[in-house]
Task: structure prediction
Amino acid sequence: MNKRLIWGLGIALLVAALFSPLASSNPDGLERVAEDQGFLHEGEGKPVINSPIPDYMIPGIKNESLATAAAGIAGTALTFGIMCGLGKLAKRQSSVVNQSSAKDHLDRSI
Amino acid sequence: MHIPDGFLGIKTSVVTSFLSAGALSYGLTRSKEVMGERQVPAMGVMAAFIFAAQMVNFTVAPGASGHLLGAALATILLGRWNAGIIITTVLAIQALFFQDGGITALGANVFNLAILSPLVAHYVYQGFRAILRGKFDKVAIFLAAWASIMVAAAAVSVELALSGTIGFNVVFPPMMFWHALIGIGEGLITVVVVSTVTASAIGVFKDRQHA
Result:
């Protein structure tokens, strides 16, 4: 991986570790509208699936800032890994398709 | 503006899921056409940065906050189809692992934030670049980012209304108001990040024309 991309990943991890604990805890735009217009409760039932790290805090870490920073680092690394994995998979599939179409072409020309 | 479980009706969830799946499979073929070998790690870094930045809510007014979406950022640097795949990946991870955005609303969230937002960012950016003849690129970037938020907020309003959760006339004006403010933050961050990346990494994210 290119040096500048490593810098980019480093910056992403820094943002996750240092800035996420400082994030505003105010409701976001949609939550604020839901609260003001009285439909916020519609979304407050039991979650449909149980996530391992709800609300971006690693369970079991008492200090909220640390729990958030740890969740941020884990999530950022996980996202990088999954995105690269998916990208490689897509690349490999497309090269398999290219090879087989090249083979078809070869077969036909023979 | 991740929609949680419970806000949308079944029909709206199903229809948006099909629309998203269709758009994504088309996007994947388009993305492969322009994706070089070295673009895979660039997509990984972009996804990681967007995930991290989405954790950092900024206050836009007393009692309301927003965070970067990153659709315009990814669109301008890597093209709209790659942006769609990147944002979809981030949304899926957030819903599965972090309970952010409902799993039943994932189709709608992908449609709003990973399909519509990059599409609008692309056309607004290209349109203003043509009008401004390539000058004031930062203005084009800012407007593309702002518009990408507004279109998603409008789409959320339509989906809530179709689901019978709230009337369109009730939900649309405040959604536009708050997201007009959040969009300013989106625009400023996008301008700063795009300028920094293009100043320091010419050739790494060289697909700006492809978008």
In short: The helical segments of chain B are 10-34, 39-54, 71-78, 80-98, 106-131, 137-162, 168-200.
